[in-house]
Amino acid sequence: MSQSAAASPWHVYIVRCADATLYTGIARDLGERIARHNEGTGAAYTRARRPVVLVHQEPATDRGAALRREAAIKRLPVAAKRALTGG
Fold it and tell me: Residue 4 domain-assigned?
């Protein structure tokens, strides 16, 4: 059974940075995490590549599941990541 995005305690997300690169991460509060990236207090990678735009998100049942999915996405070739994000 799949949980809805709103009911999930964890999310795996991909943002597109201003330089068109993609960054993948996990978060409990997705809106706050994206805001932190755009404020420059998120990940070091996104700090110099602002603003970021959320292009993909998936719910995860727990932190472990989110970390495993994040790792799987990071192993994908760039073309597959772009296909996942719809662009």
Answer: no
